[in-house]
Structures are given as structure tokens and as C-alpha cells.
Amino acid sequence: MITMDQHDPISGEAIKSLVQGMRLQLNNAMLGKPEVVENLLACVLARGHVLFDDLPGLGKTTLAKALATAIGGSFMRVQCTPDLLPSDITGFSILNQKTRDFEFRAGPVFGDVLLADEINRATPRTQSALFEAMAERQVTIDGESKILSETFLVLATQNPVESIGAYPLPEAQLDRFAMKLRIGYPDRKSELELLARSSRSTQEVVAQQVLKPGQLKQLQQSVTHVVVELPVREYLVNLAEATRANSSFALGLSPRGLLQWQRAAQARALLENRDFVMPEDIQHIALPVLSVRLSGAIGGVENAIEAVLNSVKVPMI
After folding, report:
1. Domains in the chain and their CATH numbers?
2. Strands 113-117 and 75-79: what pairing?
């Protein structure tokens, strides 16, 4: 039994059942993309935020809505534009003409799942307001700190082929994301099923709630009990050092990135019904974790990451 604390135990069977339920709901909403679903679930269980770097119309909003429903959380969406203000994200105080008191109107960051569409179209000032919420899970408004949801999660999108009117995210802000994911075009079978669904109904496929209030927090806490043995931790550090020594990258992996990589590997192990991390877990989520924070590689980031993985000896567990 994996235990959050003495008051809130959650069994291995319960974890397996809840994870499988979320997996089924997300795969039903996002046809033909099981790998994307697995990485998204790993990121959610690791309490990380996701950056989708992909073309429009591939199902990112559908996936975000399905995730919010499956975890039993509220879904919020903000369309990032150059005239978007920080208060449009965090909220603001307004004077009540009847009571003559200021009332706080909460912004979309007070939801559980926030979809920040085309985040690179917001100004750096507005981006900073969102990243503060992502990092601290709180916002400061009129000198008062307001705590966000314990399971607050940002799914941000950016279009990789359009740069007009965009404000690229600097490396320090990209490091706030746990993973960068790409959905890509569906396969032929999935597109045929998508057309068949559309021909039968005008309604989108609606996901079903899987988690009850508090259960996502339990699952996230259970991830911290997944064991990472010393040889695996040494393997992670060796990989981080290899990125810093690799001249292909403009910057190497930061300690914060290393911590997120370990937590994502723990989540991956939990998804595989294991209570310990294997080197395969680290390798499996290397690309989504590293591609969001390592850039400038000659010949492509993916090839450079693959070269780093091949350059470090894998421990025998």
C-alpha cells in the first residue's frame, strides 16, 4: 500500500484503477495518441505544467477539457493576445456601488486546469504574471497573496510556424514547464473514426469524471513514494552533466529541470504499476522533459538529446 499519510491511505489497486480510468477517458477524447496521453498523465501526476508546441486544430483544447473533466476539476481558457493584461489572468478588485466595498473578481488562474492558448502572443509582462502563478501556485493582488487550487495546472500552446506578433518565451520561463509535447497529425484509422463520430452527432465527445475531490492530490503524493535508488539518481546526474558538457546546447539542464525529470520518471513508473524507477522511465520521458529547456542544438534538439542518452552508461538495476 502506498500511503499519503496515516489519515489518507490509497492502495496500489486503487491507484491502478484511477489511472486506468483517466487513461481511458483521455484516449477516447484524443484518438490515436496514446503516447501523448501517457506523457500528459505523467506530467499531471508529477504536478508539472505542459507546453504544447504544435499546429492549430490538432485537438489540444479537446484534450484539455477532457483532462479537466476526468480529474473532476474546473476548466478555464484564456486566449493570449498582445493586449491581454495581467489582471485578465489573475483577477482584479472592483468597487461595489451598493456596498461601497471592493470585491475581488477571480481570474482564470483560479480554476484547476487553465488552457493558455498561444501563450507566446501575450506580452512579457502578462507572461510573467502567469509564470508566477505556475511557479508559486499563488498570485499577489493589491498586496494580498491569494492561494490557487492545490491541483492547479497550466496547459499552454504555441504555434511553432507563426512568429509575427509573437513574444518568444525565454529559457528561464520555459524551464517552468515540466514537458513540451507535440500531438501531430492523427493516423488514417483515427481520422476515419473522427469523421464517423462527427457524422453521427453535432456534439463533441464528452469525457466522464473519474476522480473525486482530493484524489488527484492523493495520486500526486503517491508519486513521491515511488523509490528512486542511488544508481538511478546517479544516472540522472550523469545525464544532466552530459547536457552541460555537450556543446550542441546553448545551456545545459538546470537543477530545477533535473528535479522535474526525476519526478516525471517517478510518475511514469506509477503509470506502469511500479513502486520504483527504472532507467527506462528516465529514457522514456527524456525528450518531452528536455526539449522544453534545451535549445540551440545543431542538427536538431531531438538528435542531440538522443546523443546524450547514448553517451551515458545505463546502470544495471
Report:
1. 2-225 (3.40.50.300), 226-317 (1.10.8.80)
2. parallel
